[in-house]
Amino acid sequence: MRLVLGLLALPAFTVSCSDDPLPENYYTFTGEMVSDYLQNRPEEFSEFVAILQRSGMYGMMATYGSYTCLAPTNAAVEEYLHSRGLTSVDQLTKEECDTLSWNHIIDEDAYFTTDLIDGNIPSANMNGRNLTFSCDSDAMNNNNVVYYINKTSRMIVWDDSVENGVVHTLDKVVVPQTFYLPDVLAENPDVSLFYEALVLTHLDDSLKEYIDESYTCGADSVNQDMTISTGGSPYTMRYVGTRMKRYSAFIETNDVYAQNGINNLDDLKARAKQTYDRMYPEDAGKYDDDWTHRKNPLNRFIAYHLLPYYGAYNDWTVSGDVKTTCAKMDLIDCTDWYKTLMPGTLMKFSSPQQGLYINRKGLGALATVEGVKVLSPSEMGSGIDQQALNGIYHYVDKILEFDEAMRDQVCNDRIRISSATITPEFMNCGARGNTLRATGFKVVEGWDFHGKTPSMTFRKRDVWMVTYADCVDMVGQFDVTFSLLPVPKTDTYEVRFAYGWGDMRGKVQIYFGTDPDNLQPVGLPIDFTLWPTDPLIGWVEDTGDSETDRAIDKAMHNRGYMKDMDSWAQGGVNILRAQAMKLRKILVTETMSPEVTYYIRIKQLMDNPQAELPINYFELVPKSIYAGVEAEDTH
User: What is the distance between the alpha carbons of residues 259 and 262, in angstroms, rounded to a whole number?
Assistant: First the structure.
């Protein structure tokens, strides 16, 4: 079926897919499979059929399953061949046909345009590459909507339903970038000033990694589903096959610089010096001509635009079904915090109804610090492929800096760090946002498992997941040390750990400090099997009277515990604060500095191979919030 949609707004993200066809598909064979659809339209797809047949993928398109096929027309294939100096599909090698086939097929999900929003299609293609979905209006056709893949391949027909999935027709072959992020930026004249500064600071060299060749994992663990059990329920899981170093850049265009009086590299140097001499007066004038020094103002300016995480527009906070179902948008904007390539700094992402913002403070339209808006792929315009082999870049609408407003206002807040952002590895391998299965990890870069081999997974995403729909699970004799994100400025912070009670959990000792080899225990061991109404914790259901409930909260806080937030509802119905089993444990209160890296160690004390630990999130809370003039909110 062909859908014609007007361009008002992109539809909500409502993925509904399955590895298996609907039951009736097993018994009615009158409809077309993907293979039939293509074969029955030789005037449009004979060239693509030939590519699929050369690769051996054509037979797969005749089998039951749930596939998204992005089918280039004959004209598109001929244009691609011409660009290669070829005249026939027969001149392509078998390996080239494999790659072309894999680029155009998503093999476990049928994604209709109504399932997608601006950003990446949730599942990678069979080549393991992420594809950007965006839209534009067609001025030549009554401004009807036009959809694009990777900003360059236009869907000329979309949402043709077949027995085993969906077919979208493209006017260009999808050819994912083979260049690293700096090389992709070099090809875009609209960001030439940023790129010039990137090269001068040599920070482009920091963006030229991709595959970690030292990482290994058995193929049987990677390519076959495994069943694990956490929380008493079975889950499907696969281990990560490849560790990737991936990056995201948030860049002002030359036009944005010009609007701020920055027209050349000297102007940009002056802007950077003005900002960072003010932010770091102790370094002012010391490194002005040493462009590669990490304390040089221009180096700091560029480094703050770069993150060691790969994230499409729809990846930086929760989105789609999870957001609209679970987040209480009248209480919070969904947010996440990330470390940047500028040492000792954080970046905050918020996604109010107005869009995606960096370093915003306040709720929705009532924001007290507006922040910097990130342009969606559609707002960036078509024809610009923002994807690189090892990363992605986005446009921003204002100058992006780690300035006083960010440090003193935006960061004067409860900094809630999702388990998904503790390490870039969880996002770079696609574990975050995976709706199909959990993702297993035998090792994580920078994490010390102290010789233990627990079963560790990053849960798949659904509306019944814990806070912000992300959670790391460890099962067995776990003993793990990892670093926290940096604090934004020297201050006294309360460090908290959010977890869920469970009779299958365990008892752990938590350690904290700056020397990962000599961390100090904080408090007594935490017994995750202790029911929260026990006097040692003191959880009591809210009464509805604000003074009484505040007194209950204070009493719990004095015991080192807090209720969970009231701004998130599992499945849209179970408010976390109202669930006794959802708690926050106060680990330590001490002065912390952005110049220092802080580590957490969590050691299982019980001799139980089935003991579990869910890591939901951590909080870094400055004294002005946890002991301020006004009581800390419950959101």
Answer: 7
The Cα 317–Cα 313 span in angstroms is 9
- The enclosing H or E element of 493 equals strand 491-500
In this prediction the pTM is 0.91
- Nearest Cα neighbor of 15 from 323, 227, 313 is 323
DSSP conformation letters of 21-67: --GGGGT---SPPHHHHHHT-HHHHHHHHHHHHHHT-TTGGGSSS-E
Asked if 217 contacts 440 with a C-beta cutoff of 8 angstroms, the reply is no
Distance CA 261, CA 277 (A): 19
Instruction: Give how far Cα 270 sits from Cα of 54, 190, 244, 263, Å.
Output: 57, 21, 36, 11
**Which of 242, 181, 116, 152 lies closest to 387 in space, CA to CA?**
181
247-410, CATH topology level: FAS1 domain (2.30.180)
What is the phi/psi pair of residue 106, to 5°?
-105, 120
Distance of CA 312 to the CA centre of its chain: 7
pLDDT of residue 138: 67
Give me the pLDDT at residue 25, please: 32
What superfamily would CATH give domain 23-170? FAS1 domain (2.30.180.10)
What Å distances lie between residue 295 and 280, 299, 446, CA to CA? 9, 7, 24
The β-bridge relationship of strands 67-72 and 165-170 is parallel
Kindly state the greatest CA–CA separation across the chain. 79
Q: What is the H or E stretch that residue 339 is in?
A: strand 335-339
Q: Give dist(CA 109, CA 16) in Å, integer.
A: 9
Tell me phi and psi for residue 328, to 5 degrees: -90, 90
Q: How many Cβ atoms sit within 10 Å of the Cβ of residue 576?
A: 22
| Top-tier CATH class for 415-626 | mainly beta
Tokens describing residue 202: 């040599």
Nearest to 391 by CA among 176, 86, 630: 176
Q: CA 619 to CA 443: how far, in whole Å?
A: 24
Of 512, 417, 523, which is closest to residue 467 (Cα–Cα)? 417
325, two tokens: 């179902």
- Asked if 23-170 and 247-410 have one fold, the answer is yes
pLDDT number for residue 453: 83
Q: Which residues of the chain register pLDDT less than 70?
A: 1-30, 138-143, 231-232, 466-467
- Interior CA angle at 427 toward 194 and 197, to 5°? 10
3-state helix, strand, coil in the chain (%, to 5): 25, 25, 50
Quote the CA–CA distance of 303 and 499 in Å, as a whole number.
34
Cβ burial of 133 (10 Å; 0-12, 13-18, 19+) is buried
DSSP per position, 533-580: TSTTT------S-HHHHHHHHHHHHHTTEEE--SSBEETTTEEGGG-T
* pLDDT of 137: 75
Domain ranges of the chain: 23-170, 247-410, 415-626
Q: Are 620 and 495 in contact (CB under 8 A)?
A: yes
